[in-house]
Amino acid sequence: MTALAIPRDLLPADGRFGCGPSRIRPAQIDALAALGTTLLGTSHRQDPVRSLVGRAREGLATLLGAPEGYEVALGNGGSTAFWDVATFSLIRERAQHATCGEFGAKFAAASTAAPFLAEPQVVAAEPGTTATPVAAPGIDTYAWTHNETSTGVLTPVLRPRGADADALTVVDATSAAGGVKVDLAQTDVYYFAPQKALGSDGGLWFAILSPAAVARVDELSSRWAPASLSLSAALASSRKNETLNTPALATLVLLVDQVEWLLDRGGLDWAAERTATSSAALYDWAEQRDWTTPYVVDPAQRSPVVGTIDLDERIDAKAVAAALRANGVVDVDPYRKLGRNQLRVGMFPSTPPADVEALTRCVDFVVDALA
Questions:
Q1: Mean pLDDT over residues 76-80, rounded?
Q2: 363: number of Cβ within 10 Å
């Protein structure tokens, strides 16, 4: 069935629907190529690269609506590295993690393993549903994911009512930032890697820090941490539009082009409307067939950027994904550890809603052929 030919008039203009890395627009590749002999391969301590870092920091603050006094920091290693950064530099003694999938659970595992921290509280939900933080005395850091990439669950970004006055809210926005609306005043740390809605490669992390978060970083700066995992060191470098270590310049170029593309079209409001249109097309399609079911039952909890659709057991999702891949429609496989008979669709701002609609027509065609 992988040799099945989908009619060309059914195919999307671009067949990439991955949830990370996500599709990169051709114009971004052109922007990267244009800098191939001027910026790439040059010192990251000099003005051209520092200017690029400054554009990234300023653009992200504008795109995401950073309140006055919030700062944008960046460093090497992606969100996985930032879990360790946060463990050293943000959690004073005890955290609470609200987890509803793979990525929230990984941060919980990192702080659980830290010998200098108390055992964290973990508020867990079954995959496909959301977990929200619950205020408790003695918790100095509340952590959760805005958008759980593994399951397609969206969790509100709201400070827990009744939390201790100096408690921080630390939100993983890796697959939400740039594609989902957010009020950053409800957070102290909104962190992400740029390889999803921000249309870039991995290898860097960004964090938008409130004054309270900066104060916590200063408070904990005397705690030993490897230099590469010190948020204090990263923040000091970021204020100079530098990174502690050599950054991934190509990643920065792609990111800046994407952020400025989004801003030129109306910013986060435009991006969120675009992803909402795409996801509505996917979920409406799934609800109109007797062999598809949105994995996230509650519509209010369904992600606008990562759609997970269960297929009836009589249809082999692996065979469907393989047939699609043979026709250039790629990366709709479910998250590997979830183990469901499912399709997972990335619908970040670089993906036009028309391509999502075309994907659904392709799936219809393949399923009919398999039957």
A1: 92
A2: 29
